[in-house]
Design brief:
This is FAD/NAD(P)-binding protein. By secondary structure, this protein is α/β, with parallel strands linked by helices. The chain contains 16 helices and 19 strands. Helix content is 36%, strand content 15%. Strand 5 and strand 6 form a beta hairpin.
């Protein structure tokens, strides 16, 4: 073989995005002789597992069609060329405000993949291997070997990039104990999983099911166990099929993720970043002994989010403020947390117009109801209020905070592993369900198919059943013979079911305290336990400490994942060019 070989393990949206960047950068950085790109994934290239077209048509995208793109624009900080392309709504010819089905998104991703392959130079050939990769070995300075399931001989690679996406995980101690108890007592226990892949047949009609988790995995579960079993929504009324179980749902917060915002932002946008930008990130990275997220980073994040909120309030809704924006901005910038609170109290008369991240994070903190029935009424009122607010432009500071969240996320990617709390907070505020899904929740609640359990939900296994309780209705408990953990597995390297990552870790790859694969933030090279980047191994995605906000993103928001894809593509192409030169010499 005279050409070079690149193996990409994972052909879903992240692998597709990397391939698009390889195609964009190859004319500048790689002139041959020849390049074989091997994509290793048992699922279809483009959509991969999560967005494959072979899934229920009832499952939707979680973003407006106009807010989904796989293509770079001038807002992305990259060294390679910008290659614009259509958003999902432009490609599909649908309403930009629509929430498309995931099968349509899968078709879009397949088209992006085909376009990326077609854009590669003529001497670059792509091979798809519909198998699982089991391990990578080989000398640091030499060709790598990628071993595939059911294939006796390895793929030889001058460089390997892991774009594995979301991973299955072995259960933790609590989940193992709950599973054991379920087996011994004839109960149903469904651990954290991808809901579209989960066998829900053990959840029987009419029976109570405890559900722990109130995010997007719950929304999918709710849909598959109601409409997926023949029920239907008639306006604001749910018409049951009689095959639904009764879902008792709770979580740490006890409320669903906030609804997607249903209006656009007119007028001046908040000038971001302001208090958490590249200079602040560099200062954090340069701290002797490192940084602590809560102590060192969160104050900057909170100040940035508050700045965006008040910029919008003062510039778009000045009648709800007492002083000029220029005066407020100057004082806000100079103030510490206590001084800012006093400033806001004096300048913003209505508490509903103030930014309170603690109240946003824990809306049921201190809230108590005397019975589960009172809780149901209270939760319906909470969801109705959230829907009204998130679709009312009079509350447009909420949209400004959303834009600040995107800005902050793009900066925090540079810091590496900042712990799970931030990602949960971001998802709760910025990645909630479409408004129609929350209206469906209300209809299901009124029909008695969905019951709320409140905040700080705990689950015990005793007396032959599962029992759930929470802080919102003190002393109340619900019993059931079925428990569903409605959340994705945490992508730790130690507990992943992915054999390749486990072998990589055993071979010396470094892992962060939160169990993520450590990579060089500059180009995604895998780090060893001494902090040295591997010259030929790269990794991108949620299993790494440089995880971005997603393999696709909103147009014109900087796309951290696009920046990462570009940096890794360029580093891999430069490596391939250098190995080709050495071989030729």
């Amino acid at each position: 073989m005279t050409g070079r070989s690149l193996v990409i393990v994972g052909a879903g949206p992240r692998g597709t995005g990397l391939l698009e960047r390889i195609a964009a950068n190859a004319p500048e950085l790689y002139a041959g002789p020849g390049l074989d790109i091997h994509l290793v994934d048992p699922y279809p290239p483009g959509p991969g597992r999560i967005w494959r077209t072979a899934q229920s048509p009832l499952l939707w995208m979680n973003s407006h069609a106009e807010d989904i793109t796989m293509f770079t624009d001038e807002t992305v900080d990259l060294a390679g060329p910008v290659r614009p392309g259509p958003t999902l709504h432009e490609w599909a010819g649908i309403d930009g405000s629509a929430f498309a089905g995931r099968r349509l998104q899968g078709a879009y991703l397949r088209w992006v993949y085909d376009r990326a392959v077609a854009a590669l130079p003529p001497d670059v050939t792509v091979h798809h291997h519909p198998r699982r990769a089991l391990r990578v070995d080989g000398p640091r300075e030499g060709r790598q070997r990628v071993w595939l399931e059911g294939r006796p001989r390895p793929l030889l690679a001058d460089a390997v990039v892991l774009t594995l996406g979301h991973l299955d995980a072995e259960p933790d101690d609590e989940q193992r104990e709950l599973a054991r108890y379920a087996r011994e007592h004839g109960l149903v226990h469904i651990p954290p999983d991808f809901t579209a892949d989960t066998d829900l047949s053990g959840l029987r009609p009419g029976e109570p099911v405890l559900v722990r988790g109130f995010g997007l995995a719950f929304v999918d579960l709710m849909v598959l166990l109601t409409e997926g079993r023949g029920g239907r929504h008639d306006g604001d009324t749910y018409v049951p099929s009689g095959r639904e179980p009764v879902l008792y749902v709770g979580s740490r917060r006890g409320v669903p993720y906030h609804s997607k915002i249903g209006y656009g932002l007119d007028g001046e946008r908040p000038p971001l970043p302001r208090f958490l930008g590249p200079a602040e990130v560099e200062a954090l990275l340069a701290r002797p002994g490192g940084f602590d997220f809560r102590r060192d980073v969160w104050p900057l994040v909170a100040k940035e989010l508050g700045f965006a909120h008040y910029h919008r309030l003062f510039t778009a809704h000045p009648r709800r403020t007492r002083i000029a924006w220029s005066t407020f901005e100057e004082k806000y910038a100079a103030a510490g947390p206590a001084e800012r609170a006093a400033l806001v109290e004096s300048a913003v008369p209505d508490p509903a117009d103030r930014f309170d991240p603690a109240a946003l994070d824990r809306p049921l903190a201190g809230v108590r109801y005397g019975s589960h029935e009172e809780l149901q009424e209270g939760m319906r009122a909470y969801i109705e209020h959230d829907l009204r607010r998130r679709h009312d432009p009079r509350h447009s500071p909420d949209l400004a905070v959303f834009l600040a969240l995107l800005s902050v996320y793009g900066q925090l990617v540079r810091l590496g592993d900042v712990g799970p709390w931030w990602h949960g907070f971001f998802s709760y505020l910025a990645s909630g369900p479409p408004g129609p899904r929350l209206r469906q929740m209300l209809a299901l609640s009124r029909a008695g198919v969905l019951r709320f359990l409140g905040a700080d939900m705990t689950v015990t296994a005793e007396h032959g059943v599962f029992r759930a309780s929470g802080a919102t209705v003190p002393g109340a408990r619900v019993e059931a013979r079925a428990l569903v953990e409605a959340r994705l597995p945490h992508p730790t390297v130690e507990r992943t079911r992915d054999a390749l990552l486990r072998e990589l870790h055993a071979d010396g790859a470094a892992v962060t305290p939160d169990g993520l694969l450590a990579v060089d933030p500059a180009d995604g090279r895998v780090l060893d336990r001494a902090g040295r980047p591997h010259p030929r191994r790269f990794a991108l995605g949620p299993h790494t400490d440089a995880r971005g906000s997603g393999a696709f993103t909103r147009p014109r928001t900087g796309g951290p994942a696009f920046r990462q894809n570009d940096a890794t593509a360029r580093a891999a192409l430069l490596l391939l060019r250098e190995t080709a030169r050495r071989t030729a010499a």
